[in-house]
Design brief:
GO terms for molecular function: adenylate cyclase activity. The chain is an alpha+beta fold. The protein has 13 helices and 18 strands. Strand 17 and strand 18 form a beta hairpin.
Length: 522
Amino acid sequence: MLKSVERILDKPLALVIVVMTAILALPVCVWLDLRNLSDQNLTSQANTLNAVISIFRTYYARNIVDRVVAAGGKATPLNAYHAVSGGIPVPATLSIELGQEIRARQKEVEYSFVSHYPFLNREPYRLSPFEEEALATFEASGDPAARVIDVSGNFLTRQIAVATPLVMEQACVNCHNTHPDSPKTDWKVGDVRGLQVFRVRQPLTLNLWAFKWLMTYMVAAGACGLMVAAVQFRKAKRFEALSQELETKNAFLSRVSDGISKYIPLQVFHSIFSGTKPTEISTDRKKLTIFFSDIKDFTATADRLQPEDLTVILNEYFTEMSTIAEAYGATIDKFIGDAIVAFFGDPTSRGVAEDAKACVAMAIAMQKRLGELEAYWRKRGVEHPFKARIGINTGICNVGNFGSKSRMDYTIIGKEANLAARLEQIAEPGGIVLSYETYALVREDVLAEPMEPVRFKGIGRDVVPYRVILIGQATETGPSLSRRMPGMTVEIDPDRLGESGRAEAVRTLQDALAIVSRPKAD
């Protein structure tokens, strides 16, 4: 059953049909129940009226017709008519005795005929609070059409009482004012002598079955609601289990992806997982800025260290350099022994010039950080801390996925990458060497000086390298000066000038001061 309900809930059209059927069925059920209620009320009224008429017919036949026939057709209206042959009840007596008959034989209807001034030979009648209040109202208003209604009952039965006034007419005034048993003899036409009360009661359960269609509808709706709730509860439990399973799988995938991200460049990792980069053998030709670095005399340093210490220090070196590379947006291609290969321009690029500037700034930050780490490593007993050489070149390379269908490597190839590796080999420990192509893009941001032209193996032209001047690292003794602004660049390293160079530097600075001091031409 629950599966059937679940299938209906999963089909929007079927669910709409069920809901519309339920909405249309409600007014139909209400109409059917109203018809049943009307039928039951009419049947109850007809039965009650039939019973009252039967009581009245029986009373009339016994106390009027039989007595008149027995007296030979002679009839005398009397208050105490039972003791007189041919005596028949006066209207008041008839009303009182008829009320007693109805009360004795009919439970649903009650009739009372009461007054504050009953004849002396009648049994006293104690008025109820409702009757006292109604009689007082009638006597105060004198309205013969007045009505007082009282609704009462309990949890199982309801009762309605309707009181109407008894108004004296001329015949009644003549009788009461002259009758010896009348306690009041100054009646006038229109006076209220008492009241008559009709009480109708009915148990609530009598009409309960009149709402059989609505109750059936409610039971069916409740059953459907319970089944829907059961289905939703089952779905909720199922979704909760799926959610927990999904959470577990997500946590597993997160751990796996974190692990994978350590084996491939971070930019490539994000590109693959975002779907922007295909995982197939494909390459593009792009202008990149390529970075090569390695540790000078790494083998000699490694021979002086225990393998465990070397592993710790080398991992610290790679961690620090990788952190800087990621901060500047480099794509780390690979670690080759103690060497680092990285590039700017793929899979994301900020433009060729900006990529080159970011690469050189990264290299400077790396050398600065290595200078800080040198003192730290010396304190830990490393006699010859790592000193890195860096080479940077900008040019067209093939970049993308190389390998087989089952195993690929995201890397770069081309002579421009080879040139970056060659530039790194001629750099001094702690130095940075640029190709002219890179220097031309960063010359406004970095101080560099040309070196002697070099012809590298595999490069079919003479290359003019540019050594980046690292302020604070160009000399280990004398003070240095570096100033750069639009229209002026000053770089002084006294220890490299020599005696003759110092004199020439003084003359040059004096000439520069004279030029700057001249008034500006209009």
